[in-house]
Amino acid sequence: MTETGAAALIGDYVVNALGGAGPLAVLAGIFIVSATITQFISNTSSALVMMPIGLATASELGVSALPMMLGVAMGASASFLTPFANGVSLMVYGPGGYKFGDFWKLGFLVMAWALIVTLVVVPLYWKF
């Protein structure tokens, strides 16, 4: 991602889309993009894909990279919307008699709560 320039390109896109609203909005965007990716691939892979993008975004904004990295980590851990995003969810999917839509009902609320907590706690402890 770094060597091909894809991280800088996506970082530029995020900054152009949300940079005018400040670093907190960019942090929210990084979280949401990471959380979206982690619904389809493992959280570790999602974090590895998003890490260079978070670094490029922080560099574009001229802020500390640590809050953006924490946004990536928290977003990559928010795999609550699909059963195949998390191994434990996938294990109980069949035996528990769950449907695909069951994960959206509570998963969206838990992910929204994780976003809110991230946006409140990260800037308190790790300044931009």
If you had to describe this structure to a student in words, what would you say it looks like?
- With 128 residues, this protein is mainly alpha-helical.
- The longest helix has 26 residues.
- The mean pLDDT is 86.
- The two termini are 24 Å apart.
- It is a multi-pass membrane protein.
- It holds the Pfam family CitMHS.
Proportion of strand residues? under 5%
Count of the domains: 1
Roughly how much helix do the residues carry, as a percent range?
A: over 70%
| Global morphology | globular
The radius of gyration is 15 Å
Distance between the termini: 24 Å
- List segments where confidence is low: pLDDT < 50 over at least 5 consecutive residues: none
What is the N-to-C order of secondary-structure elements (H for helix, E for strand)?
HHHHHH
Query: How many H/I helical runs?
Result: 6
Q: How would you classify the helix and strand content by structural class?
A: mainly alpha
What's the main sheet like?
none
Care to count the β-strands? 0
Mean pLDDT: 86
